[in-house]
Amino acid sequence: MPIYEYRCDDCSEVTSVFVRSAHKKVEPRCEHCDSTSLTRMMSRVNRTKTEQEVLDELGAPGAGGRPEDAYKDPRQIGRWVEKRFQDYGMDVPDETREMIDAAREGEMPDAVKDL
Fold first, then answer.
1. How many CB atoms lie within 10 A of CB 38?
2. What residue ranges do the domains of the chain occupy?
3. pLDDT tens track for 11-54
4. What is the pTM of this model?
5. What angle, 0 to 180 degrees and rounded to 10, lies between the N-to-C axes of helices 74-87 and 94-104?
């Protein structure tokens, strides 16, 4: 069951289309402007990572070294957020960058202080 991505020739936005069968003919419409003038894009291939691969990539959590406590480690939080923005080809917003830098200095954002 593939998910195809298309770039709209009219508004340049990207639309994802879930298809139940790779053999089914797809007639996509732009979800932003409803245009049918779309160009299929080459999509990234992704797979689920093991817990060890995540730890190897992001570093060992600082909260006792237990994977279930990784969300408490400001290094993990910041790296995860930066990675997500990078995966989507977006720049990290200034406000988010400030929160990540503050967390790395030991100042946790209010939303996660009490976790």
1. 22
2. 3-40, 51-110
3. 999 999 888 877 778 889 999 999 999 999 987 777 778 877 87
4. 0.40
5. 150
